[in-house]
Amino acid sequence: MKRTILYFSYLITFLIAISGTSFTMKQMNTLNSPVSSETEACLDCHSVVTPGIVEDWSSGIHARITPAESLAKSDLEKKVSSPKVPEELKNKIVGCYECHSLNTAKHADSFDHFDYKINVIVSPSDCAVCHSDEMEQFSVSKKAHALDNLRKNPIYSTLVATITGLKTMDKGKIRESEGSENAKNESCYACHGTEVKVTGTMTLETDMADLELPVLSNWPNQGVGRINPDGSRGACSACHPRHSFSIEIARKPDTCSQCHLEPDVPAWNVFRESKHGNIFHSKQTQWNWSRVPWTVGKDFKSPTCAACHNSLLIDQEGTVIAERSHDFGARLWIRIFGLIFSHPQPKDGRTYLIKNQDGLPLPTTFSGKRADGYLIEKNEQDLRRTQMEQICTSCHSTLWTRGFFRKFDATTAEADKMVLAATSLLQEAWEKGMIDNKNPFDEHLEHIWIEQWLFSANCLRYASAMSGPDFAGFKYGWWKLNKTLQELRFYMNQNH
User: Fold this and answer.
1) CA distance readout (Å), 186 to 120, 151, 310, 343, 454
2) What value does the CA radius of gyration of the chain take, rounded to a whole number of Å?
3) Could you tell me which of 79, 236, 307, 440 has the fewest CB atoms within 10 Å of its CB?
4) Pairing of strands 294-295, 313-314
């Protein structure tokens, strides 16, 4: 059967190659490195069936270097971190079969594909065969647990269900329903990830054969906390999109902008209007986005998200400024996004485990007291802050850098005070029975309060952290913080 299929696939490839639309032998020869017979079979068909995928892959690093060649590079230049890459994979380029055939026994989405066992989804556990350090770092991060940090935290899950709940009108009244799974998947879970499950099989008729394919629920999705059919967490393709898996794309802030944008996480928007963003937009075509390690001032002239949060950075003498990390919170000492106040970074990426003094799964109480046992301690905060300052001082003077961080500290504290003022008013409304606190997110007064900490305060903190003054002033920041506080007070006076 396999021989017959290969014969027909080669014949089809040859015929279409004449018209110049197939992945031809000439193109194959440009790969320079050995291609496995299994991947050749994939390319023969998929260059016709899904040519975009093949072209994308052929332009990427996986099509141009073997794991053995990568392992032979210097420690700073290596992109393969696993010390024990299987022998059968070392001397072949990383092609279709090398990724889609790994760990099939663990993959519920595995299926028979022309006598090969193939997985639909390439998971972080599969990528870890070559990139074990990156997988280990990512696995403890908040991103890896992003879905469960929503689902397993009853407060966050209530917020998600409330804002995505379908509502209809019945005799002038709003009729509520549970949160729509489709709405969750299209909004919160699009970034946080879905749990992808195999729910059955389907028959797909093709010109070559009828294929029995797994049916996947909550798919497609490339959220950072996606739970895959092999039980692993995450989607490397969230930052390194299929099938080029480009480090250039991952480093550019456009990738981060898919999820980190206004009004709740306005990192991209603030960066875009900052001086760093201005330089990026003006000069990015002159930068070397793919070099590893990344040399400050030579390969790039202004920091992007990746430079500050995870890339391996060196100076022009080759001295390491910052180690690579795929735990994107590892360099952060403070968390400026959260419900409801800023706080030190959590010790564990599973933030749903946190319990504050009121017994709630939140890093602070509603009065601002921190759940210190679950948050990094002062010495760790100082260490991380020093590491971030070293990145800043690779371009800026010490005086500039210290002045910047002093401003950031002051602004963060002021934002928290404004959130506390709004939260105090909300608690007063609950205590007086003006509104019901069984669900803290479903009434008009509570919606105003949500805007105070989720939108306005976050925007102010991000504006300070990344120097975007409009977001600190009239966009969302101080203007909205004061306006929202006045709206809360007015609403309470009207309903007293």
Assistant:
1) 21, 15, 28, 29, 20
2) 26
3) 79
4) parallel
How many whole angstroms separate alpha carbon 19 and alpha carbon 147?
A: 47
Q: Which of these, 105, 95, 101, 127, lies nearest to 116 by C-alpha position? A: 101
pLDDT mean for each 10 residues of the chain (496 residues): 45 41 49 86 94 96 95 95 94 97 97 95 98 97 98 95 84 74 94 98 88 96 98 97 95 96 96 97 97 97 96 97 97 92 98 97 96 97 98 97 98 97 96 92 94 96 96 95 95 80
313: enclosing H helix or E strand:
strand 313-314
Q: What's the 3-state SS for 413-447?
A: HHHHHHHHHHHHHHHHHHHCCCCCCCCCCCCHHHH
Say which residues have a Cβ less than 8 Å from residue 394's Cβ, sequence separation at least 6.
296, 297, 313, 315, 321
CA–CA distance, 477 with 483 (Å, rounded to integer)? 10
Residue 315 and residue 297: Cα distance in Å, rounded? 8
Provide the residue type at 208 as one letter.
Answer: M
- Residue pointed to by tokens 């490339």: 222
Whose structure tokens read 């299987």?
86
The two three-digit tokens of residue 152, written as one number: 């397993």
Residue owning tokens 């977001």? 471
Q: Is the dihedral of CA 96, 102, 106, 110 positive or negative?
A: positive
Distance CA 40, CA 33 (A): 13
**Which is it for the CA torsion 32, 35, 40, 42, positive or negative?**
negative
**Whole-angstrom distance, CA of residue 107 vs CA of residue 255:** 28
**For residue 226, which of 125, 306, 153, 129 has the smallest C-alpha distance?**
125
Q: Which two tokens stand for residue 214?
A: 């797994």
CA 465 to mean position of chain CA atoms: 19
Please report, for the chain, the start and end positions of each structural domain, with discontinuous segments joined by +: 1-102, 137-238, 247-494
CA 27 to chain centre: 34
Determine the pLDDT at residue 171: 74
